[in-house]
Amino acid sequence: MLATEACLAGETGTPYDRIERLASVRRKVVDWVGDMDMSSAPPVHTVGAFYKLLLIEWAVLLGVSAILYLIARFWKSEGEGFLREFGVEPRNKRNSGSPYHLGAPQDTARKLAVWSLGFLWMLDGLLQAQPKLGTNFFAAVVQPIMSGQPRWVNDVFLSVTQLLFTSRPLWFDSLTVWIQILLGVGILAGPERFIGRLALRVSIAWSLVVWAFGEAFGQIFSGGSWLMGSPGSVLIYAALAVVLLSKAEAWERGQVKHGMQWFVTVWFLASAILQALPSAGYWSGNGLADMEMGMAQMPQPHFLSAPLYAFAHALSHGPMWWNAVFVAVPFALAIGWFTAPESRAIQVGTGAVLLLVWWLGQDFGVVGGAGTDPNTALPLFLLTLAHDFLPQDGSSPWTRLWRSSPRATAH
After folding, report:
1. CA angle 104-380-124, nearest 5°?
2. Which whole-number Å values give the CA distances from 167 to 43, 46, 160, 164, 234, in the listed order?
3. Do residues 196 and 187 touch, judged by C-beta distance below 8 A?
4. Measured by CB atoms within 10 angstroms of the end CB, which terminus of the chain is less buried, N or C?
């Protein structure tokens, strides 16, 4: 008997009911860590064709980039003279400084956010180039995450992704690889450069596409858990992009910092609500334990799987109390970020919880051969870390609301 079946053996119901519960658990696990059936490896010739296509596209991109670079260098050195040759007088350049130029210490926090978001997108692109995703992305990722979604989600989004990734699977997956890698490279240029701002704006639109088609809206309609990644990692990518597109004035006045505080507060509050919903089914049964067991059974080194097996065994005892803890923790963090986000205890506690969840709850997001991103805990940790690098001003969402209230104004 499989470990997950053993966890379900004590539940009541017919054998058919137990099979249905096991299938439901399996679908929730593959939402975030990919398809668990690693035995059906793609054909060697298909994998070879996929990587040959990536190599050809890389050569084309390299050539186009070289041409654009040479044109840019020529225009920078000879552009004004070239225009004058055709009787066009170039406009006088006013050296008014960039509205995105920042000084320390805000610049340190922004650089951390730039490197974090850039490398996250590049990592996602490289993960998308894994053999299982390059040749079977629809069956390994899209189809499982759409299971259990409302009918309108399946009708609108499943049909579109099925059309794209089954008609030209290699081409569309390779396109996804390069979109994400190029977004990451562009973001690393920084918001002070046009290419950096363009990449950030495109990344926001792409994040929404991935959230709908690749993450099924973060599983918020089908009982997602914040431990496993709800409400979706690319929402954090989009938030980081919005932060980086803010001008220097917003950073220096503390508006960016205050926005980050509100985002983290709402994120943890939404996480607690999703975990507490009775429809998610985490207050009874072995839902969380079985999802954890499914992750432990993914192909990975023993030193990574052993803690997951132990955690799954612990979760199978007293699911109601465990779920109460998993509701209370994000709720407490939401209160902390609402009332005292600059407190060292809140900052350290948030980092510890997120790193622990990334390990035990999300298995680092990239193991198993079908992970498409490092999941939500790591990017949220990086966002909070960038916040911690900003200068303290002694305020919080609560104090700002209190000061702006009519009662406080009257006093």
Report:
1. 100
2. 18, 15, 11, 6, 26
3. yes
4. C
d(CA 37, CA 226): 24
* 152 Cβ contact list (under 8 Å, min separation 6): none
- Token pair 């939402």: residue: 31
pLDDT digits (tens, 9 = 90+) for 61-101: 888 888 888 888 877 777 777 666 666 666 655 445 678 98
Which pLDDT score, from 0 to 100, does residue 85 have? 64
The pLDDT of residue 407: 59
φ, ψ of residue 234 to 5 degrees: the values are: -70, -15
| Cβ atoms 102, 243 nearer than 8 A | no
- The predicted model scores a pTM of 0.82
* H-assigned helices in 214-232: none
pLDDT digit string, tens, across residues 262-293: 999 999 999 999 999 998 889 988 888 988 99
Cα angle, residue 276 at apex, residues 272 and 282 outer, rounded to 5°? 120
